[in-house]
Amino acid sequence: MTTSDTNRTTTQAATAPAALPGDLGWHLGMVLRGYQSKFEDAVEGLPEGIRGFQVLSSVVHLSPPNQQALGAHLAIDRTVLTYLIDALVEAELVERIPAPTDRRARKIVATTHGRDVLKKYETRVAAFESEMLFCLPAEDSAVFVSILGRLSMDIRGDDPSTNPCAAMDHLRWER
Amino acid sequence: MTTSDTNRTTTQAATAPAALPGDLGWHLGMVLRGYQSKFEDAVEGLPEGIRGFQVLSSVVHLSPPNQQALGAHLAIDRTVLTYLIDALVEAELVERIPAPTDRRARKIVATTHGRDVLKKYETRVAAFESEMLFCLPAEDSAVFVSILGRLSMDIRGDDPSTNPCAAMDHLRWER
DNA sequence: TATTGTTATACTCTATAACTATA
DNA sequence: TATAGTTATAGAGTATAACAATA
C-alpha cells in the first residue's frame, strides 16, 4: 500500500471512501483514541482531565452566557457539567457568578489563577497537537485540519440529533 | 461565507494546528459522533449495531485466526467480544469453530447467511460514508481519507498503550 | 507458567427523573 | 407553563478478577 505518499493521485472519492465500508470510522476512532490518550497526558494534574480543560478553555475563550450554552458547545449533559464545574470551582480555577440577564442562570468565569493554569496547559496541548500532525507532510496537516473543520461543521449542521450546539458554536458570546 | 474556506491560507501547520489548543480534538469528536450516529442508522437491525457490523466485517474480510486477534484489531476487550460474538452466533451470522492451530482458541467464521447480510449492510454503510464526504469538494474527500489513514497508522505505531493491534492491523490473516 | 476464552463482578460514565428557583 | 441548575438514581458500557482448558 502507498503509505508514504498520501496517495492523492489515486482518488475516486465518492465511490471509494475507504478500503472497506466502515473503515472511515475505524480510522477516525483510532485517531481520536490516540489523540485523547496524548491529551490526557498533557492535561495531567488538571481536575477532570480533558473535560476540565475543555470547560476551562471554553469559559476563557468563548464566555458562554450560562452553563447550558457551555454544555451545548461541548456536547456535555447539564447534569455532568454540574460536577465538572464543581471540581473546577473547588480548585479555584473558575467561579459561578449570577448571570446578569437571568437570575436562574449562572455564568462561569475563570479566576486569574484559572487563566494562568489554562495558559500553562494550553502550551502542552498545543505542543502535542503539533507533534501529532508533524508526522504528516507539512502541507497535509493544514489541509487535514481545514477539511476536518469543514466536515465537523457540515455534520453538526445537517443532523439535529447530533447537534445540540446549533448555530451558536464557535461564536464568541458577549461578555 | 467564512465557513466554506476554513482559513486554508493562514495555516502554518506545526505552529497553529487549530484555532485553539484542543480544537483538533473537538472537531475530531464531532465528526466521529456524527459518523457514528449515521452508522447506527445504517446498521439498524443488525445484532449489536456498529460493533456487530465491525466484528462481522472483520471476520469476513480479515479472517482473524482467533478472538484475541479480532478483538485487538477492533480495540475491543476480549470479555466484551465474547458477548458480541454470542449475539452474532445466536443470529446465525457467524460460527465459532475450533482454531486449527490451537485447541484453546476459536476461529470465528461467517455463515453464508452472515456474508449475505454483511453485503446488504455494507451497501448502506458505504452509502452514508460517501454521502458524508460528498459535502466536501471532490478532491478533498480523497485527501481527507488518505491523510486520516496515514495519521491513524502513525498514531498506532508510536503509542503502545493506544496500540493493542501492533503491526498486524490491516493485514489479512491466513485462512 | 503463560495464554485463550468464558463468566461474574465491579466500576465508570452518562442519561433520567425529581426538585428548587426563577421566567 | 417552561427553563436553569442541582441532586439522586438508574442504566449502559467497560474493565477487573477468577476460572477451565490448553500450550
Summed up, what is this model?
Chain A is mainly α.
Structure report:
The structure is a homodimer of 175-residue chains. Chain A has 175 residues and is mainly alpha-helical. The first copy, chain A, is built from six helices and two strands. The first copy, chain A, has helices spanning 23-42, 49-62, 67-74, 78-90, 112-134, 138-158; strands spanning 94-98, 106-110. The first copy, chain A, has a two-stranded antiparallel ribbon with strand order 1-2. In chain A, β1 (94-98) and β2 form a beta hairpin. The radius of gyration of chain A is 19 Å and the shape is globular. The N and C termini of chain A lie far apart (52 Å). Residues 1-16 and 159-167 of chain A have low confidence and may be disordered. Chains A and B meet through α1, α2, α5 and α6 of A and α1, α2, α5 and α6 of B. The first copy, chain A, binds a DNA duplex (23 and 23 nucleotides) through residues 66-68, 77-83, 99, 102-106.
